[in-house]
Specification:
Blueprint (H helix, E strand, L loop, with lengths): L48 E6 L3 H4 L8 H14 L4 E6 L11 H8 L5 H4 L8 H4 L6 E5 L10 H7 L4 E7 L4 H11 L3 E10 L3 H14 L4 E4 L1 H8 L9
Parallel strand pairs: 1-2, 1-4, 2-3, 4-5, 5-6
């Protein structure tokens, strides 16, 4: 059984029994986005899958590092989470308490971007956006102090011990924490599914560039699909709790 020491309790989502509402994939300009193949080449995710949602926190929805089109992809993340709340893990990026803290170049980072520290943001901004926070529990949170949830943690061991072999990744930012999460999952040998219409960034140009990389450079190790395709294949198949 996985142990999540940093799970923040919250009221369960009262509508989790409802059929999820799917929303068309859109880019920052409102254009439709589709995965290159939109096919799960290795079949349905199955019972060994979790939904790993990256850093959908208030600090990125309301703060100085706001992702302008987070709200456009949020309904798709909600759809996936409501279908599999017990198999959802929300990572949370926990910044330094105040400017000047941090190890190595992170200290310089927080000296430059003091507005990203907890003292200036406010501790409440570390929390998940309200539409996702109400899924916890049964969903879980996993805190990290760097871009990757795999660095300096035993996340991979916890997942393996629970029989998890597949991670479906949503969240942001596409070109920073999602990238680090995806590469770490690949390195640890997990099957990786990127949900293309459930990713977002604060920079359109680099989001588009990374989507091109995801779609074209990781053909054997990453499957790229839309929310609709994932849920059509994953409905009613996952029963193992990520806790």
């Amino acid at each position: 059984m996985l142990v999540w020491p940093r799970c923040a309790p919250s009221d369960p989502f009262t509508a989790m029994g409802k059929e999820p509402t799917l929303h068309p994939p859109v880019g920052p300009a409102g254009e439709l986005l589709m995965a290159k193949s939109d096919t799960l080449r290795y079949g349905p995710p199955g019972e060994g899958a979790v939904h790993l949602c990256v850093d959908k926190q208030r600090m990125f929805a309301e703060g100085t590092d706001k992702m302008p089109w987070l709200e456009r992809v949020l309904p798709n993340i909600v759809s996936i989470t409501s279908a599999h709340p017990e198999n959802t893990i929300f990572t949370r990026f926990i910044p330094a308490r105040k400017p000047g803290q941090g190890c190595g170049m992170w200290r310089h980072y927080y000296e430059r971007w003091g507005s990203m520290t907890i003292d200036q943001l406010g501790a409440e901004m570390i929390g998940l956006v309200p539409d996702l926070a109400k899924f916890v529990p049964p969903a879980r949170t996993f805190d990290k102090n760097v871009y990757s949830p795999w660095t300096g943690s035993d996340l991979h061991e916890q997942l393996r011990s629970a029989g998890i072999n597949t991670v479906s990744i949503t969240g942001g930012e596409t070109d920073v924490c999602v990238l680090a999460t995806m590469l770490g999952a690949i390195d640890w040998g997990f099957r990786v599914i990127l949900v293309t219409d459930a990713l977002c960034s604060s920079a359109d140009e680099t989001h588009d560039a990374m989507m091109n990389v995801y779609l074209n450079r990781f053909g054997e190790q990453v499957e790229t699909v839309t929310t609709a395709t994932l849920l059509q294949s994953w409905q009613g198949t996952s029963r193992r709790k990520a806790s």
